[in-house]
User: What shape does this take?
Amino acid sequence: MILFKQASQLFLYLEKKRAEGAHIGFVPTMGALHAGHISLIDQAKASCDLVVCSIFVNPTQFNNPNDLATYPRTPERDIQLLEEAGCHVLFHPEASDVYEPNEQKLSSADYGYFITVLEGAKRPGHFDGVVTILTKLFAWVEPNEVYFGQKDYQQCLVVKELIKRKFPEIKFHMCAILREKDGLAMSSRNVRLTAYERKLAPAIYETMLEVGSHWNANEWQEALATAQTKLSKEPFNLEYLTICNAETLEPLSTFEEKAILLVAVVLGNTRLIDNLMLP
Ligand code: AMP
Assistant: This one.
């Protein structure tokens, strides 16, 4: 695996590879890698001959300075995992090489209703930061295909819209959520859970499955209300547990439409998100 710290050098290298006919797959991450991230690398490897991963804890997408300061960083282990996974290129820049001092974020405000709700409402400016960094990364890497996790479902909708508007030549993939054996969605933030919280955390997925098992016209509303109560009890602090239209994220109006259950819950000091396609 080749490591680049400077975008200009990455760009030159990839330009050469592209000229040689390489089909480039790209997996952007914030590091502290786990098997969920590696599953994206594996999927990229299956259809691309050159796989680029980026590790960059993007300051502009953090609306909480403490979350940014305490975001787990494990660069040596990440490099080892990527080597083992057969990733070809790692881009691991410093913030000062990515952003100009006082650079303004791009705006995602006109992306549609879906940008205004859930993570968009709870984390003001978050998606502007996502759009800003991905616009830079996509321009530097010029990937043929990009791989994102369903774990960040709303982010997938944002990336699809960004691609539609600015990078229509890129093929987008949304990859399945990898879970721990007990059902907890893998996340870099899981290491912040105390042993006690880690034991309780699988209740999030269990509760989602419970709603899923009542996914019929008569029962879903009551099942959702019961689940909301369950995930509002200490030490859980529920931000949202909602069923939306899977394309627009508008509140569900009819039972039949393509729907998704989305959750954000704070457990102790750790904010966790997860989702489940319905049915
Ligand atoms: P992050 O490093 O958290 O920004 O995540 C980088 C990419 O990995 C994003 O596209 C995430 O959606 C994806 N990802 C994170 N957790 C998982 C998981 N448990 N399973 C599959 N993909 C994941």
